[in-house]
UniProtKB/TrEMBL annotation:
Domain (GS catalytic): residue spans on this chain: 126-468
GO molecular function, a single term: ATP binding
Name this polypeptide is given: Glutamine synthetase
GO BP annotations listed: glutamine biosynthetic process
Family to which this protein belongs: Belongs to the glutamine synthetase family.
Top-rank taxon: Bacteria
CC cofactor: Mg(2+)
Keywords: ATP-binding, Ligase, Magnesium, Nucleotide-binding
PANTHER family the UniProt entry points to: GAMMA-GLUTAMYLPUTRESCINE SYNTHETASE, TYPE-1 GLUTAMINE SYNTHETASE 2
InterPro entries: Gln_synt_N, Gln_synt_N_sf, Gln_synth/guanido_kin_cat_dom, Gln_synth_cat_dom, Gln_synth_gly_rich_site
Species per Swiss-Prot/TrEMBL record: Planotetraspora mira
């Protein structure tokens, strides 16, 4: 059977969504479709299918070595049993995630699962991890809705005058929320907004942030899997638009040592199965008992959880006291130094806008692992009917050690190594990750901690700029 006949047969076997993609690819002149996934190092990787074979590849995926999920963000392969040179999985795209790439003419992308050769989920697939967490909540009648709230730094890549690694030089030094910041980044911002909207990511709000060249542009909440998919598309688009304009944009947690760091705060709420009622809202403008128990679960697991939500060595240069990034295991109403912030609901839209903000979260994390782990932690609090205690009403770093102890307010890990120790000791999170995924994640992240410990800050910064 010739290639054309094979493609025709494959197309007949596809579901309607996949057939619509093939039609769009032809009409829009798309020549390459990227099958993307996020790895244990937090890096977005993938392979691309050509138009002539896309009808087959949508269903079967593209072959991929199992070893890639043992690769660090420095492209250093780690020894993990089951992830060596022998063995293959398939990068299988989800047709529902198809988007054109406005910054890459003739290209499109789909977010993908990593599947075994028989089509079953692979035990190290991050996207499957989040799907399983969503299903677990679904069995309790709960539907998670989420949004990442990312910050990024915009500038240009210039050589270091002292001969060190290249640097990110911000495009401006405007003040926080200053009108001048809108103007100085206008051309890039409008290109980014149009690119995101063209991919189905509706803009929530935008403003220039505290750091030089730093911006925050957030998109609207979505159900949990779509929220994580959206964050991958967002990360790619922020950087892709910048590359196209001969600029450099980075979502790294601390891209410039003496400037504010970039977070990706995670907003979350739990709804009923029909998405009709926000179960975090108590009907009186406050947080429900369910919401409080979710907070308690997150706080109980937070020391290990941050190994997944603040997943890089660079993260811990941002995750410090009095940096508006959170550094303690506490919660509070509109307290932006608390690890969990209860967000004030909007007048006239109280139920829909009631949500929690997880502050220790950034874009060096794999969003499927970070969001999935938060869901596991929160559900544990719900199932065990945990109580989060009293809220913290001030910056916790201004309290005495005795006052913090009374409130159960403990310092978060101050390094990736400490966070990994806490994760490895957290049975709930390790059981949720599973043996293969858990072993691979720890191996990859411990290698990164060791590799960067042997290097200076300039090297660390450049490598995180390059990856994120």
């Amino acid at each position: 059977m010739g290639d054309r006949q094979s493609a025709a047969v494959a197309q007949q076997q596809l579901d309607p969504a996949a057939r619509r993609i093939l039609e769009r690819v032809e009409v829009d002149g798309i020549e390459l479709v990227r099958f993307l996934y996020a790895d244990h190092g937090g890096v977005i990787r993938g392979k691309a299918a050509g138009r002539s074979r896309l009808s087959e590849r949508i269903g079967t995926g593209i072959g991929h070595t199992v070893a890639m999920m043992a690769m660090s963000m420095l492209d250093r392969l780690q020894p993990v049993e089951g992830m060596g040179p022998v063995g293959e999985v398939r990068i299988v795209p989800d047709p529902a995630t198809f988007v054109p790439l406005p910054y890459a003419s003739g290209a499109a992308a789909m977010l993908s699962d990593l599947r075994q050769l028989d089509g079953s989920p692979w035990a190290a697939c991050p996207r499957t991890f989040l799907k399983d967490a969503i299903a677990l909540l679904g069995s309790e009648g709960l539907t998670p809705v989420a949004a990442f709230e990312p910050e990024f730094t915009l500038g240009r890549r210039l050589p270091d005058p002292t001969g060190g690694p290249d640097r990110l030089v911000p495009i401006d030094d405007s003040l926080c929320y200053a009108a001048a910041g809108f103007d100085l980044a206008h051309d890039y911002t409008m290109a980014l907004v149009r690119a995101l909207e063209a991919q189905g990511l509706p803009i929530e709000h935008y403003y220039p942030e505290l750091g030089a060249g730093q911006h925050e542009l957030s998109i609207r909440p979505a159900t949990a899997l779509k929220a994580a998919d959206n964050h991958v598309i967002y990360r790619e688009t922020v950087r892709g638009v910048a590359f196209r304009m001969a600029m450099w944009a980075s979502l790294a947690p601390k891209p410039i040592a003496d400037q504010a760091g970039n977070g990706a705060h995670l907003h979350i709420s739990l709804w009923d199965a029909d998405l009709e009622h926000n179960l975090f809202a108590d009907g009186k403008g406050g947080l429900s008992v369910l919401g409080r128990r979710f907070i308690a679960g997150v706080l109980a697991h937070l020391p290990g959880l941050v190994a997944l939500t603040c997943a890089s060595v660079n993260s811990y240069r941002r995750l410090r006291p009095r940096a508006w990034a959170s550094a303690y295991t506490c919660y509070g109403m509109d307290n932006r130094e608390a690890a969990v912030r209860i967000c004030s609901p909007m007048g006239g839209n109280v139920e829909a806008s009631t949500n929690l903000e997880i502050k220790p979260s950034d874009s060096s994390a794999n969003p499927y692992l970070s969001l999935g782990a938060v869901l596991h932690a929160g559900l544990d609090g719900i199932r065990r009917e945990l109580d989060p205690g009293k809220p913290v009403l001030v910056d916790p770093d201004t309290l005495s050690a005795k006052e913090r102890a009374r409130l159960g307010c403990e310092r978060l890990p101050s390094s990736l190594g400490e966070a990994l120790d806490a994760l490895e000791a957290d049975r709930l999170l390790m059981d949720a990750l599973g043996p293969l995924r858990g072993a691979a994640y720890l191996a990859v992240k411990r290698s990164e901690a060791a590799d960067f410990a042997a290097q200076d800050v300039a090297y660390e910064t450049f490598q995180h700029l390059r990856a994120f």
